Amino acid sequence: MKDAIGFGMGDFYGSGMMTLNGTYVALFWTRFCGLSIQSAQSILGTAAFISAASALFFGSFGDALFHFSAGRRFGRRHLMMLATCPLILTGILIWIPGLPHWAYMVEFALWIVTGQIFQTAYNALPTEMTDDYRGRTKLSTTRTFIATLSGTALPLLGGAVLAARGEKASSYQIFAIGFTLAFALAVFYAWRHTWEMSPRQAGYGYLEGQSGHHAFWQHPGLVLARLAQVCRAYASTLRISAFRKHLAIYILVQTAMDVFGGTFVFFVIYNLGQSSAFASMLLSCTIVSLPLTPVFAWGLNTLGPRKLYAIDFAGCLVGCAWLCAIWLTAGHLPGPVWTVFTVCGAIFFFACKSLCGFMPWGVFPLIPDVDQIVTRKRRSATFGGIQACLRQCASGLITITVGLILGWSGFDATRSSAPRSAQLALAGMMLGWFALTMLVCWWISSSFHLDSRTDGIITRETARLAAGGSKADVTPETKAVVEDLTGLPYSQVWPENVRI
């Protein structure tokens, strides 16, 4: 558990950064920096595309760091994590009013790319720290617990500061800059208390004992060959059937959360007629998921991802209906009754939403197990890179789209009220998109069969083949599981003549 806490501290930054970005950045820029909602959302969306491109680069670069002496000495994951610590502090520049539009664009892009560098390395650690299913679940559970703590503490403290000091730029700066400093410390702590695979364990044993850079990187022609190889490597991840389904669920869930996070405070202010401090109080209801996190882990171990996904998505649909009822009853129910109804709805919805955030990271460490029997290598960062790239591209598109729709509807964040058209646009984007994605994800997850049993079968088969076992001796059940999870004929897995 001590090791799991050390690992989980990394997501104090990962989750906290997303909460800070999604909840307060657009609000701060539109109220205190002179940006329109379209401009603010366009910066957030453009930065997402930049992050997507950087994800591809750092995903490949992270997996290939063993080709460099620094990577073999300090570790390919930990070298990138250590570099993140000072770069996080650039996030302070986001909270300075009065700068030109391009300055916010550059500062936010650097902030987002820094987060991508960290996530590329960090997301690869669970599959390298242990190959035990329950051990990985413990890492994911602790990570989710600390992420929820971060995502809860930020709006809770932010709401307290806003309530005490009022809606001033300095109020936002106090908690935003304070959390940015805490993020840097959390990443440093995670760097000190985690470990990763050696080159030999990761399938790069032929590089051990070498000094300097591997020759593959020292000749221009070989570098071009490497770039072509990188493109093929990313494309090859999509051959894995389990990864395609996981990726579709992950991207849809994350974009739904992006839209929800980017519009919730505006929804509370303009649809419910409450203050941003009240919105922060509702966001702090995510604290309910802290005691539920061990229950999520138990469900993942006992029920498996497919059944737990079904429960989660059904709960989220009920939560969307509840939030819609809160909006429709605002001003019609007695104040105390409506407040209790609203807080109960927020607690229920955020409990289900937290499970949405938990599930993909409970499943992702299993994906490299499926890939290893196909490629004979551990390519965690490559999978993390393509996943982050596509996630950021989707986030960029949806963020820009939200800004355009809100601008078209007549929304203006500098005014104290919004027209009915803007209220309908806010509700449609926040609740309608979330509900639609839950329905699609529920359908995809119905055929997702990667769980503790099937992961154990595929890892045992990988170990048997690695020990020199014959592919001809595979059992019918194992063959069926391998073909289902990989999406490939068994004859195409565990290729010969691969350097390990």
TrEMBL record:
It comes from the Bacteria. InterPro entries: MFS_2 (IPR039672), MFS_trans_sf (IPR036259). The keyword Zinc-finger does not apply. The chain crosses the membrane at residues 12-30, 42-66, 78-96, 102-125, 145-164, 170-191, 247-270, 276-297, 309-328, 340-367, 388-411, 423-444. Gene3D superfamilies: MFS general substrate transporter like domains. It holds the Pfam family MFS_2. Keywords: Membrane, Transmembrane, Transmembrane helix. Coiled coil: none annotated. This is MFS transporter. It comes from Bombiscardovia nodaiensis.
